[in-house]
Amino acid sequence: MKQLIKGATLASFLIGLGDYVLLKIGTPLGAFLFALGLYGVCMLGANLFTGKCGFILEDKKWRDLGIILITNLIAGWIIGWLFSLADPAIHEAAVAKFNSWDLSLGFFLRSVFCGMIMYIAVKCYKLGSIWGVFIGVPLFILAGFQHSIANVITAGAAVNWSWTIPLCVVGNFVGSVTIAWLAEATPKAKKKNKR
User: Fold this and answer.
1) Which pLDDT score, from 0 to 100, does residue 191 have?
2) Domain 2-194 sits in which CATH superfamily?
3) Is the peptide bond before 28 cis (omega within 30 degrees of 0)?
4) Residues 161-181: what's their mean pLDDT?
5) pLDDT digits over 42-52, tens only?
């Protein structure tokens, strides 16, 4: 459990660095630089909920996923709060972003779409390509899709909390698992399962 928590804290910090840059300089450049956060997560084998949940169909590690999620949320909020102390401009940008969230079907669906992209990005990395990460992350940011762990970091930087975060967690999970489940039916996946 100690290793899971350490890996999840590391993942929150790496995504936090990406979120800090995005809040500091905005899009489009911040969206591309944010990708380094997910690349670091993949390269260092850190535990990021949105990068792991689609693989639950393969590994069935529900307890581990729960620990990762809780750690990502707590560590992410604290990291965001520390960012707000480091730079007032980050706090102001985070408050503006935070105030744009709402408990709506649209917000939920944007979370689902982000989960889909996250699964594809991490799957690409596992198959030996970094392009999923460096295309996928800017894609979900520029499209306005919602990433639960980045959002909790933003909430921490805004020194606030929103019920949109649990909604986003569910949406990310649904999107990621849906793509993973659909991918199981592809000829390539079937061929791999026969080995």
Assistant:
1) 55
2) Glycerol uptake facilitator protein. (1.20.1080.10)
3) yes
4) 97
5) 999 999 999 99
